[in-house]
Design a protein that fits this description.
With 192 residues, the chain is α/β, with parallel strands linked by helices. The protein is built from five helices and six strands. Helix 2 (41-53) links the parallel strand 2 and strand 3. The longest helix has 29 residues, at 106-134. The radius of gyration is 16 Å and the shape is globular.
Length: 192
């Protein structure tokens, strides 16, 4: 990352491993204070401690993005710890074992969509609240190539990732009406 995030605050969900952890590290190395969040409390706290030991500002927060109260508390803890929220990467997500759609249990479909789609919605809702109050911010929602195509045996996952793209497009407007300030929402079809 070549851009300086000195004095900025970033929140990353799904930050205990993979792309979330890599993104949190990149934000920290670029100067941002980072709230790393994940449902795996031990792993996310360890990742945050590693960043702090390397001289960065970071906190680890256990959060189940499928629970809106958890999400509200996560955003509030980020803002109360660091004073603001400038960037968010909504990356938390799960897959389901491949199965024929006719055989897939409703519980599997509901779980995948609760985390992958409703979780992004809850994160955006609470992140936007703070960003609009401060008049700036940027949000990136991680979708997937699965949000652009449909493949057999992946109905729940692909439906959730299509939903993330639609949700992001529906909310895609400036965070502030002041054209002199930065603020945007971005969908990220990738390998999330």
């Amino acid at each position: 990352m070549n851009r300086s995030f000195e004095g900025k605050v970033a929140l990353v969900t799904g930050a205990a491993s993979g792309m979330g952890l890599a993104t949190a590290k990149a934000f920290a190395e670029a100067g941002a204070a980072v709230a790393l969040t994940d449902v795996n409390e031990a792993a996310v706290r360890s990742a945050a401690e590693d960043l702090v030991a390397a001289g960065h500002k970071a906190i680890g927060i256990c959060c189940d993005v499928a629970d809106e109260a958890d999400v509200a508390a996560m955003v509030e803890q980020t803002v109360s710890t660091f004073g603001r929220l400038d960037a968010a990467f909504n990356n938390a997500g799960v897959q389901a074992p491949p199965s024929d759609m006719a055989d897939e249990a409703a519980e599997v479909f509901d779980r995948v969509n609760a985390i992958n789609l409703r979780g992004v919605w809850a994160c955006m809702k609470h992140e936007l609240h703070h960003m609009r109050q401060q008049g700036s911010g940027a949000i990136v929602n991680c979708s997937s190539l699965g949000g652009l195509v449909g493949l057999p045996s992946r109905a729940a996952y692909h439906a959730s990732k299509h939903g993330v793209i639609g949700l992001t497009r529906s909310a895609d407007r400036p965070i502030t009406d002041d054209r002199n300030r930065n603020g945007s929402l971005w969908g990220c079809p990738s390998s999330c």
